[in-house]
């Protein structure tokens, strides 16, 4: 039994060491658990549970770090509160690091020491992944993406059929029988990567992008395979698998000879591909990666699109996806497009980088065991929306849209939910 315990401890230490680097070690050593991050967290503000305080979450990871890595000896480790990653601590890690965090980064933004708290929590998730302790729903979503080429398990024939159906819709809408949604077009300038939920549940968002590309006269294509912008291994902390998911997009870029990988309105898809992928890959991709919001904003600035905001007369507010805005840096593009496309744009309070997470990120939508907690944490976002008086909520992220759809139902908000491109397409004046 003693030998078994030693082997188990070694496995857990190896899991921690695998994802530990100097920066994380320094930050884990620096967090004094002051608790000043508590007001930044929508989970804590919703339930006032000490386990929801970001500093508490970091403290859980610190216990294992001090136990397995601390160089101050056993007495120093004891004083720092070290603890083996035993069964009880692992259970708490799963409940807290997965079940009370959406990796939104708002705590990191407001940390007085400038610590990347969300990354330290993701580090803890990486360790749990090595120990095969990913919550079942999230693990299932990742397995589906591994075994097919998208997280919805859509078969290639079904996807191609969807594209052809949407192409007919586009031709009818623009009154041009030659309009198309190009598929596997070699040498196109743009490869447009989608969230498979668009193909399955939100086809109007794809149709809107097709209409915009048509109006701009763009050279672009979809891919029949390896088109999924989502990367749920980012949420589980599995860096090598996250790299593999990006490799699939890279393979489509090379197969079709495209110049720019254009990403649909997806927060974590943008952050993982644009900013995180080089660290996972060990190199910088040799093609440009841009959000569709950047592309459409360029079109408007260049005069390639004509917009009539009177076509969107209802008051509109914007939800800022955490991975797109706070962690991804795309603060102004959506705002610029909405101001050009709607009559009455109303900001939430707070908004921009300080905006509260809706609660749908971090893999939360896949982890049904934490759904009640997720919806409770989303009450803050529901309150923000109500206070604007808006009738339309725009969210440039499908994880956010899924969560907001639930909040709309649970909190009886009575709003419409749209992507930015859907609103722009509504305002589009075709020459």
Number of domains: 3
What is the succession of H and E elements? Answer: HHHHHHHHHHEHHEHHEHEHEHEHHEHEH
The top level CATH class name of the largest domain: Alpha Beta
CATH topological fold name of the largest domain: Rossmann fold
Mean residue pLDDT: 95
The helix fraction, in percent, is: 40-55%
SSE blueprint and pairings:
Blueprint: H1 2-19, H2 22-30, H3 42-47, H4 54-68, H5 73-80, H6 87-98, H7 106-109, H8 117-130, H9 136-147, H10 156-174, E1 190-193, H11 196-200, H12 203-216, E2 220-221, H13 233-236, H14 239-256, E3 260-263, H15 267-281, E4 288-291, H16 292-301, E5 315-318, H17 333-341, E6 344-346, H18 371-377, H19 379-388, E7 392-394, H20 398-410, E8 416-418, H21 420-427
Parallel strand pairs: 1-2, 1-3, 3-4, 5-6, 5-7, 7-8
Helix pairs in contact: 1-8, 4-8, 6-8, 10-12, 12-21, 14-15, 16-17, 17-21
Report on the structure:
This protein is 53% helix and 6% strand. It is built from 21 helices and 8 strands. It folds into 3 domains: 2-133, Fumarate Reductase Iron-sulfur Protein, Chain B, domain 2; 149-301, Rossmann fold (3-Layer(aba) Sandwich); 309-427, Rossmann fold (3-Layer(aba) Sandwich). With 431 residues, the chain is α/β, with parallel strands linked by helices. The strands form 2 sheets. A 4-stranded parallel beta sheet has the order 2-1-3-4. The protein has a 4-stranded parallel beta sheet with strand order 6-5-7-8, with helices on both faces. The longest helix has 19 residues, at 156-174. Helix 1 packs across helix 8 (117-130), helix 14 (239-256) packs across helix 15 and helix 16 crosses helix 17 (333-341). The protein is globular. It has helices at residues 2-19, 22-30, 42-47, 54-68, 73-80, 87-98, 106-109, 117-130, 136-147, 156-174, 196-200, 203-216, 233-236, 239-256, 267-281, 292-301, 333-341, 371-377, 379-388, 398-410, 420-427, and strands at residues 190-193, 220-221, 260-263, 288-291, 315-318, 344-346, 392-394, 416-418.
């Amino acid at each position: 039994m003693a030998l078994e315990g030693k082997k188990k401890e070694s496995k857990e230490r190896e899991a921690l060491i695998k994802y530990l680097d100097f920066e994380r070690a320094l930050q884990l050593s620096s967090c004094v658990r002051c608790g000043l991050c508590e007001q930044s967290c929508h989970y804590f503000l919703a339930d006032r549970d000490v386990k929801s305080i970001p500093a508490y979450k970091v403290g859980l990871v610190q216990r294992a770090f001090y136990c397995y890595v601390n160089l101050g000896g056993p007495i120093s480790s004891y004083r720092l509160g070290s603890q083996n990653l035993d069964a009880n601590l692992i259970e708490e890690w799963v409940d807290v690091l997965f079940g009370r965090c959406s990796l939104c980064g708002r705590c990191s933004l407001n940390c007085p020491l400038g610590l990347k708290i969300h990354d330290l929590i993701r580090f803890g998730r990486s360790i749990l992944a090595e120990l095969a302790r990913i919550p079942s729903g999230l693990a299932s979503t990742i397995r589906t993406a591994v075994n097919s080429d998208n997280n919805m398990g859509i078969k290639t024939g079904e996807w191609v059929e969807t594209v052809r159906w949407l192409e007919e819709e586009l031709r009818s809408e623009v009154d041009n029988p030659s309009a198309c949604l190009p598929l596997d077009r070699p040498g196109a300038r743009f490869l447009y990567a989608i969230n498979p939920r668009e193909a399955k549940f939100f086809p109007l968002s794809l149709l809107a992008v097709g209409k915009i590309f048509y109006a701009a006269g763009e050279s672009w294509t979809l891919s029949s395979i390896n088109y999924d912008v989502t990367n749920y291994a980012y949420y589980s902390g599995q860096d090598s698998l996250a790299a593999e998911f990006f490799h699939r997009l890279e393979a489509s870029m090379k197969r079709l000879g495209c110049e720019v990988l254009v990403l649909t309105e997806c927060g974590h898809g943008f952050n993982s591909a644009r900013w995180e992928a080089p660290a996972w890959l060990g190199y910088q991709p040799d093609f440009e990666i841009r959000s569709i919001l950047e592309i459409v904003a360029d079109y408007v600035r260049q005069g390639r699109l004509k917009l009539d905001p009177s076509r969107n007369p209802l008051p509109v507010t914007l939800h800022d996806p955490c991975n797109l805005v706070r962690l991804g840096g795309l603060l102004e593009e959506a705002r610029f497009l909405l101001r050009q496309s709607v009559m009455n744009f109303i900001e939430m309070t707070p908004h921009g980088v300080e905006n509260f997470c809706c609660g749908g990120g971090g893999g939360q939508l896949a982890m049904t065991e934490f759904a009640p907690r997720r919806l409770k944490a989303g009450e803050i976002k529901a309150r923000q929306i109500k206070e604007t008086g808006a009738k339309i909520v725009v969210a440039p992220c499908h994880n956010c849209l899924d969560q907001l759809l639930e909040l709309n139902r649970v909190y009886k908000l009575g709003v419409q939910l749209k992507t930015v491109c859907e609103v722009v397409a509504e305002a589009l004046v075709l020459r």
